Amino acid sequence: MLATKVIMEQGIHVEGINFFTGFCVEGHTHAIRSKDRNRPKRNNALWVAEQLGIKLHIVDVIEEYKDVLLNPKHGYGQNMNPCLDCKGFMVRKAYEWIREHGFDFIITGEVIGQRPMSQRKDTMPVVARESGAGDLLLRPLCAKHLPPTLPEREGWVDREKLYDFSGRTRKPQMALAEQFGFKDWATPAGGCCFLTDKAYSDKLVDMWQHRSSRDYTLDDIMLLKVGRHLRPRPHFKLIVARDEGEGKFLEGYRRQFTSLKTVSHGGPLVLIDGDVTDEDIELAARIAARYGQGRSADAVELEVTPPGGEPRRLTVAPLHPNDIDPAWHV
Ligand code: SF4
């Protein structure tokens, strides 16, 4: 918001690009969980564009992004976040976009020293170089710490009116936000994607380890955001809805997975991911029963529905909590 406003204040036309990788925290995720019901259900990119009065282009990069995530040249951050490769990729896509649409240069809101991996003095030139954008990439908030870019040298942008922010402090940004009259903003600390989240990254790695390939679909990565994941056996895992909102979301996947629903008591919807035998289904049902209201009952009746098939009934004894191996939790 700040970088855009700084450039718009110089009378320059700016449009926004939001890349959708599938891992974004934005969008539907907050809308699923009942506990997040009070959070604003907004797509922050759209909201920001509206605040700024600019056009926003949402670009789906799910397929192309796979290579960034699976083969990051610069490696991963603390979790499965390939931030440096990711930035290079997004700026490259933006560079392709401006050439196609007749725009002159690219701006980002990056600040030197703000993030440990992708916003260091030595890594910021890497993004400019590897993206191909070179000196068409301007960072208005810390431009004064960087060599003048083409837009500055050509006088399209007045370098004197750009900023010299650096480091992890956000005080100067807050002050500038106040000056511009911004009262609300989104994720000032970055970490806008699930790949920076340890629990999510663990589930992603678990999924890859138990499949013969590291490929993934949008459904795969969406499902990793939802439910409690337990892997009682290497060849299958359970996704247990944690609340009503997640249960409703998982309903949409019953055609793709074997699902379990307790019928004698209240209980969560559970999906089984993997090829399972009757014995596996019985174990899954006992675990599912453990997470329902019949957890202390002697017997719980469930409905087992194969993907796209007819349901059948199964009665099991809920698994005792001591029999749930903590290592099953993904
Ligand atoms: S936090 Fe996620 S979206 Fe942002 S740069 Fe890192 S990997 Fe890319």
Average of pLDDT: 92
Helix/strand class: alpha+beta
Total count of strands: 10
What name goes with the CATH superfamily of the largest domain?
HUPs
Distance between the termini: 37 Å
H-E order = HEHHEHHEHEHHHHEEHEEHEE
Radius of gyration: 24 Å
Small-molecule binders here are: iron/sulfur cluster
Q: Uncertain runs with pLDDT below 50, 5 residues or more?
A: none
Biggest sheet descriptor: 6 strands, antiparallel
Report on the structure:
This protein has 330 residues and is an alpha+beta fold. The protein folds into 2 domains: 2-195, Rossmann fold (3-Layer(aba) Sandwich); 226-328, no CATH class. It has 12 helices and 10 strands. The chain has helices at residues 2-8, 29-32, 44-52, 62-70, 83-101, 124-131, 150-153, 171-180, 198-209, 218-223, 244-251, 278-290, and strands at 16-20, 56-60, 106-107, 137-138, 228-233, 236-240, 258-262, 270-274, 300-305, 312-316. The strands form 3 sheets. It has a 6-stranded antiparallel β-sheet, covered by helices on one side. A two-stranded parallel sheet has the order 1-2. A two-stranded parallel sheet has the order 3-4. A hairpin with a 6-residue loop joins β9 and β10 (312-316). α5 (83-101) crosses α6 (124-131). It is elongated, with a radius of gyration of 24 Å. The model has no long low-confidence stretch (mean pLDDT 92). It binds iron/sulfur cluster. Residues 81-83, 86-87, 118, 190-193, 195-196 line the site of iron/sulfur cluster. Iron/sulfur cluster binds next to α5.
